[in-house]
């Protein structure tokens, strides 16, 4: 499980350190290398999945193949932007240039744990989104559990 947030800086080679708790959630391949899947996320971030988490998502999305053209287009776009990556010996992730440019990451990033995935945000974009959503935090129960879940 991915949880918590941490701030980092992209180095000159477009690498960013992945926190140890996230590395543990990612897991390792047969050779002991930390492996992850990265892809374009939603709302302007990059998704970071463990191999196991990505496989579970793939299975869910695979069931949509015959559910219509729009869902197939989403699959095509999602998987065409996905890369399997290996962290280096120092625990750094090379962020693919196309993804980095697409979400506006230049130097400062925030990694956000979101249960089955982590998200990598341009720090400024995350701070804006977090501030905007924090105002509505008391309504979160209604978002997650339906209208009956909250009181005003």
Attribute tags:
152 residues, alpha+beta, Chemotaxis protein chec, 6-stranded antiparallel sheet, two-stranded antiparallel sheet, globular
Describe the structure.
The chain is α+β, with helices and mostly antiparallel strands. The chain has one domain: Chemotaxis protein chec, CATH 3.40.1550. Helix content is 37%, strand content 25%. It contains six helices and eight strands; from the N terminus they run ββαββααββαββαα. The protein has helices at residues 20-26, 51-62, 69-80, 97-103, 123-134, 140-145, and strands spanning 5-9, 15-17, 35-40, 46-49, 83-86, 92-94, 108-114, 117-122. The strands form two sheets. A six-stranded antiparallel β-sheet has the order 1-7-8-4-3-5. A two-stranded antiparallel sheet has the order 2-6. Strand 3 (35-40) and strand 4 form a beta hairpin. The protein is globular and about 45 Å long. The chain starts with a strand and ends in a 7-residue tail after the last helix. The relative contact order is 0.22. The mean pLDDT is 90.
Brief description of this entry?
This protein is of the alpha+beta class and about 150 residues long.
pLDDT under 50 segments (min length 5)? none
Provide the CATH architecture.
Answer: 3-Layer(aba) Sandwich
Order of helices and strands: EEHEEHHEEHEEHH
Structural class, by secondary structure, is alpha+beta
Q: Structurally, how many domains make up the residues?
A: 1
As an assembly, this protein is single chain
CATH topology: Chemotaxis protein chec
Total beta strands? 8
CATH superfamily, by name, is: Transcriptional regulator MraZ domain
Biggest sheet, strands in spatial order? 1-7-8-4-3-5
Number of helices: 6
Largest sheet: 6 strands, antiparallel
CATH class: Alpha Beta
For the record, give the distance between the C-alpha atoms at the N and C termini, rounded to a whole number.
Answer: 31 Å
User: Radius of gyration, Cα only, in angstroms?
Assistant: 17 Å
- The helix content is 25-40%
pLDDT averaged residue by residue: 90
Strand content: 25-35%
Overall body shape: globular
């Amino acid at each position: 499980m991915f949880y918590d947030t941490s701030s980092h800086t992209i180095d000159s080679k477009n690498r960013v350190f992945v926190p140890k708790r996230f590395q543990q959630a990612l897991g390792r391949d047969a050779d002991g290398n930390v492996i992850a899947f990265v892809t374009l996320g939603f709302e302007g971030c990059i998704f970071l999945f463990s191999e196991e988490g990505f496989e579970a998502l793939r299975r869910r999305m695979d069931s949509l193949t015959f559910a219509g053209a729009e869902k197939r287009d989403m699959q095509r776009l999602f998987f065409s932007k996905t890369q399997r990556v290996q962290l280096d010996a120092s625990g750094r992730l090379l962020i693919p240039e196309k993804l980095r440019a697409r979400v506006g990451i230049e130097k400062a990033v925030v990694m956000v744990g979101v249960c089955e995935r982590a998200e990598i945000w341009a720090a400024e974009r995350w701070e804006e989104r977090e501030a905007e959503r924090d105002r509505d935090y008391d309504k979160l129960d209604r978002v997650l559990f339906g209208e009956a879940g909250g009181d005003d």
